[in-house]
Write a structure and sequence with these properties.
53% helix, Cytochrome Bc1 Complex, Chain D, domain 2, mainly alpha, globular, 154 residues
């Protein structure tokens, strides 16, 4: 008799756990679906909208740390030699959506436009996820940590 109750309890607990697991999007938090990036779309959008300034190989413009003749900084690289991987996902997406000047504020001027009118948030997230695939492990790990810290403080 005890075995029957134990077996019934295990089946019930397993079923409840499976329901929570399936309802959560498999690997997300409870009932938070997991979004899988479309990396080929991210690459295509990057090449279409970003590569003309940031380079087809994410190399950025030369002398990107010094203001150009217009007084604005050239486009930085998005590879490991730049600073993109220093920022959390939320900031990177905000810059991509609204443009650097809108995010920085305070009269800061930048040649980096926002692309939120041309692309959806999901499409621009795909671009950022594609860029991350090009980073070495150390930079990906650091950026994931910065993103996790940012999300924990929100």
């Amino acid at each position: 008799m005890r075995r029957r109750y134990l077996l019934a309890g295990l089946i019930f607990a397993g079923g409840a756990a499976a329901a929570v697991w399936l309802g959560s999007g498999i690997t997300g938090g409870p009932f938070e679906p997991v979004r899988v990036a479309n990396l080929s779309r991210g690459e295509a959008i990057y090449l279409e909208a970003c590569a003309s300034c940031h380079g087809a190989n994410l190399e950025g413009q030369s002398d990107w740390r010094s203001p150009g003749p217009d007084g604005q900084l050239p486009a930085p690289p998005h590879d490991e030699t730049g600073h993109t991987w220093h920022h959390p996902d939320r900031i990177l997406l905000d810059i991509t959506m609204r443009g650097t000047a809108a995010v920085v504020g305070g009269g800061y001027e930048s040649n980096m436009p926002g692309f939120g009118d041309a692309y959806t948030e999901e499409e621009l997230s795909d671009v950022l996820e594609w860029i991350k695939t090009r980073w070495p492990e150390r930079e990906r790990t650091h950026q994931a940590s910065v993103t996790a810290q940012d999300e924990a403080t929100r």
